[in-house]
Amino acid sequence: MSSAGVAEDGGAGFDTVGCDMFPCYGNRTDTTRRYTLYMVAPVIPITKADTSARALPIPAAAAGAFDGTTLRDTRGRPIRDLRISVTDRCNFRCTYCMPKEVFDQNYQYLPHAEVLSFEEIERIARVAVGLGVKKIRLTGGEPLLRRGIEDLVAMLAQIEGIDLTLTTNGSALAAKAAKLKAAGLHRLTVSLDSLDDKTFRSMNDVDYPVDKVLEAIDAANAAGFAQVKINMVVKRGVNDHDIVPMARRFHGTKNIVRFIEFMDVGATNGWRMDDVIPSREVVARINAVFPCAPANPNHVGEVAERWKYTDAGNEDAGEFGVISSVTEAFCSTCTRARLSTDGSIYTCLFAQRGYDLKSLIRGGASGDALREAFIGIWQQRRDNYSEVRTAETAKAKKVEMSFIGG
Ligand code: SF4
Q1: CA nearest 246: which of 188, 296, 289?
Q2: Is residue 278 situated within a structural domain?
Q3: pTM
Q4: Cα-to-centroid distance, 244 and ligand 1 (Å)
Q5: In this predicted model, what pLDDT tens digit does every residue of 363-385 receive, in sequence order?
Q6: Mutation test of ligand 1: which of 72, 331, 332 has the most ligand atoms closer than 8 Å to its C-beta?
Q7: pLDDT digits (tens, 9 = 90+) for 5-29
């Protein structure tokens, strides 16, 4: 075990990070599990056959679908963001994303050969940027588990005109922040669901201590990531007591907390509407302690709704955000495509099937063919899941968030 808690696992291309307590099937008495039984269905291990079974036929690109600058879908939404899942593995078992009952020791992750190589990721990213993508976010699973992630960052940082970001659970960040910065990473987002150590440990479900993530955020700031975004998924009765303490912790700093409504992502997290705290309520709770006011979005399609603290005479009081996929759908301005760990494009976080680009690449497709495929996929896009969500749709066998990177 190295100083930062990173251990090599014998050449499978992934580092086991953070605490060596995983897998440790702790107690099952904590409150986070009370609803898990509602919707869990056994997840079939994802194999090559699965990928092809899940793959949608790639539509032919209509003539003139791409005007040379921006590729738009059927609702006029430009493709602007590409989220890339570089691994389907994670060292946490966050109950709203990779519940331990499903992602257990017997869970079969993608065979290494089915995972996109850095060169394949870069190739797809360059095609996407050529069609209008301005922001690339590296995700997972836990992207810092992918060995050589700094090399991938350095490769993508060569692509001109992009905002290169990464979302992490922070468990390896303290050790890697400076290297990621040096490799060319522009911005960081860290998931932090509670400041209360007991709550945090039960939500990540591997008993990982909150202090280590707070230290990692400090290390990221020190490494030059002046403004770290912090994602908190809020569940009623689980961690909503921590909304105001979280706001207090980062109030007056450059770091920005985004409070995320608990979503019915994937098919395993036992989602119920009763467990959702609407963003309106989150804002009201914070405003009661720290007066705040709505702020304009930084750009069209920004996921988080911005709220600025209005402390008298203190311009640097900072801001926070809310992400309201459940109660205030924002599909009308959704500009996000997702590249799964096994090389398929998903046009919505709540999609059930994707478009397999990996087979195209490994089948020897030319750059033009890959580009035509991308155009064909996006131009016919109609996704609007959050506008049509019901208790029934929530049960659909949607792709797991850990496979397409949130
Ligand atoms: S539900 Fe799908 S289409 Fe709507 S905002 Fe989310 S990812 Fe975009």
Answers
A1: 289
A2: no
A3: 0.88
A4: 28
A5: 999 999 999 999 999 999 999 99
A6: 331
A7: 333 344 444 443 333 333 333 343 4
